[in-house]
Amino acid sequence: MSKDTTWMEGAIAAFDREGFKDGDLISHEWLDWALDMPAPATVAEYEKARWEERSRLKSFFTYLMEERCIVVANVWGEGYRIVPPDDQAGFAIHALTRVINKSLSKTQRILAHARFDEMSDEGARRHVDAQARVAGFQQLMNRQQKRLTLPFHPAE
């Protein structure tokens, strides 16, 4: 990964010139241009360029969030949409619940597909205990997620 950060100054200046507003889409093509992404010529360069792109995107979006209070949401296949201030809390809560659900799902899959028949009695006891605790935690999280997301759902 390159230590040269002149691309960041250029990206910030380009962002300001473009005049993006809340709700606007920042396309992948615009980001490639603004972040001064190198064009790979070989497979090895392509892999290196992908890591560089991820690094630059993360740095640029971190700058926007921390210095400008601008949050962006991924729009699959198109780019990133600027999240309006009124929607940022809902976006953050949605991101949190997505991570929690993904982690719980992975934990439950691991516990469900363990080699139970090869466990010692003590290991089997700990395993069943862990399954029960995770199931209880899942129920608690389901209730809390409903309460947490309630303010962000329109009144029916």
Detail the topology: elements first, then pairings.
Elements: H1 6-18, E1 25-27, H2 28-34, H3 43-68, E2 71-75, E3 79-83, H4 85-112, H5 121-149
Antiparallel strand pairs: 1-3, 2-3
Helix pairs in contact: 4-5
Kindly describe this structure:
The protein has 156 residues and is mainly alpha-helical. Helix content is 66%, strand content 8%. The protein contains five helices and three strands. Strands 1-3-2 form a three-stranded antiparallel β-sheet. Helix 4 (85-112) packs antiparallel against helix 5. The N and C termini lie far apart (50 Å).
Low-confidence stretches: none
Strand order of the largest sheet: 1-3-2
Give the class from helix and strand content and strand pairing: mainly alpha
Amino-to-carboxy terminus distance: 50 Å
Radius of gyration: 22 Å
Provide a count of the helices.
5
State the order of secondary-structure elements, H for helix, E for strand: HEHHEEHH
Question: Helix amount, in percent?
Answer: 55-70%
Q: How big a fraction of the residues is strand?
A: 5-15%
Q: State the shape.
A: flat
What's the total number of strands? Answer: 3
Q: What would the average pLDDT be, to the nearest integer?
A: 91
How is the main sheet built? 3 strands, antiparallel
